[in-house]
């Protein structure tokens, strides 16, 4: 089988509002982050399957004949997409020699690649190909880099199998898929996420697939039809943190002071809902300074709330102070306790302010990108 | 009539938790601040009545004969203590020449003095005396300096008339009154507060009279029976602010974002109730580090909430940061928007930390006192 070459990309994700509160049954808003992961699929004719992941120094090739031996473990329950094929995962772990313990990013990327490749091609004619992936996203920073990778893998392989069309018309530079195709991409990307993360929420792959903004509530993910594109600064403090430890810390604090903490979660919930309302208004009426004023106010309030629930960090306070000194408003995004912050830029924020702010943040030792949120999802 | 000399004192007040929220029907905790106002009453034999207020550069004497002319305006409805005698106030304003507009602190202090003096002595034998008042409290900083003054005036004059006893036994250094006497002092002090402030809540004079801690909810003031004495730093940023403007700002913010703000007020309410519970526990079980940990946590959370409701100020952020750098926890107290902050000191906070913190705060241009909260009220 020969496949057509293709180039697909998927965005990262940021949590605009509702991180942590979502664990306690409140609304969260996840947005696409226009730092993208790109995947190029190229057909080969030498019977090899290769993967190049320069961001994580991973370059591996296998003979098709080796991979074919693994297909005997494939169960044929394709409709049962909710669950991973545990037998296949086990065999793949043996195949790449990581039978026990946690996977490093290289091993988990390879495992996700092989799982989706074999699941989609294993029962038929297996193509010889090279997949090369590079990304603008830092890994392990809570920005959905693994999901963007899984989404790209799923989209490229589904195109290659013909399960979904290549939506690109000749005269177009980029193309996107219809709703049904996106759902198929998303469900395969979710398999990849499960291999990489164990028990993911499904938000990251949904944002990578649909882009724009998603409302996430009690496990249900609803893509919002229209949102404006917002300019932001994304700052990575590079302070390492454990999401698991932070989630546990919030839970402990709620258990210790429920009468104080539960209203704070309710307020965060209302922030997410108010933000969604304002963003929706911005798509159907002229955008004014007032819209931005409210968005800034919501960011400030939520940042205080996140400090209250115990997931702040001095490095994030610094991000807020440095940007506030230039009239900009920031909050942590994701797990907190370090990690990343987002800063809203107004349409009138000029490049002097922007460059100065980015310099100040970099002088603190942080990485900083000017990008946007709310942009398109997975595209060809 | 000759009066016995006496020396009385009353504490200032600070709001521990619940400022602003109390305006919206939530619990507030007011505590006595051991920066005190002292009043010395000395009998004279030259037929003069004099008042010396060195803190506000006010030194005035009247002939008893002048003051006697004013007593013809006295209504005889002594039982009607809830309302000011409007006719007397009008005549007194004419007498001291401040018939229209707002009163400065000197004029309002004189007016309160004359009102209480004439109300208590005017229908009988009027004594010739000198009242001298000095205070450790800054004026106009929201620390109840005017209430402490009114409480001292009421206590000294009520002692002089014999309406309440001089509680001091010969072998005692200081003495206090019984509940009924305190209620009488408080009601006269409230009259003084009305003259000075127009429409006071009654909290400041109640704290000045009872000391310790008061629970204030929906206009009802309940003195708490026992509270521990807590060491604090009190910092006056000296940033001027208008309580009226700040109260209006909070109201606007609640009206604009009710679903976000009302839960925050609920959380503040729970902070006050939790704090009251912890302080009560501290009086009936051994005080541990955990008690202080929770008190610190409540301070931090409330400071975030006060920022959320819009009454923070960069100067107050600085107080928090400067003290946090030494492991201490601070919040604004009172109206916010500048004004004062309180910092909790732990039993183990050593004098090096203390002196260093005070130096840092003074280097910012702030006034700073080491004092305590929860101490005794009005005493002889």
UniProtKB/TrEMBL annotation, chains A, B:
Domain GHMP kinase C-terminal: 295-351
Annotated Gene3D superfamilies: 3.30.230.10, GHMP kinase, C-terminal domain
Coiled coil: 67-94
Superkingdom as given in the UniProt entry: Eukaryota
Family matches, as InterPro entries: GHMP_kinase_C_dom, GHMP_kinase_C_sf, GHMP_kinase_N_dom, GHMP_knse_ATP-bd_CS, Mev_gal_kin, Ribosomal_Su5_D2-typ_SF, Ribsml_uS5_D2-typ_fold_subgr
GO MF terms held by the record: ATP binding; metal ion binding; mevalonate kinase activity
Assigned EC number: 2.7.1.36
Annotated localization: Cytoplasm
A cellular component annotation (GO) from this entry: cytosol
Pathway annotation from the record: Isoprenoid biosynthesis; isopentenyl diphosphate biosynthesis via mevalonate pathway; isopentenyl diphosphate from (R)-mevalonate: step 1/3
Keyword annotations: ATP-binding, Cholesterol biosynthesis, Cholesterol metabolism, Coiled coil, Cytoplasm, Kinase, Lipid biosynthesis, Lipid metabolism, Magnesium, Metal-binding, Nucleotide-binding, Steroid biosynthesis, Steroid metabolism, Sterol biosynthesis, Sterol metabolism, Transferase
Chief location category: cytoplasm
Catalytic activities: (R)-mevalonate + ATP = (R)-5-phosphomevalonate + ADP + H(+)
UniProt GO BP: cholesterol biosynthetic process; isopentenyl diphosphate biosynthetic process, mevalonate pathway
Summary of the function given for this chain in its UniProt record: Catalyzes the phosphorylation of mevalonate to mevalonate 5-phosphate, a key step in isoprenoid and cholesterol biosynthesis.
Family note: Belongs to the GHMP kinase family. Mevalonate kinase subfamily.
Protein name: Mevalonate kinase
Organism: Poecilia latipinna (sailfin molly)
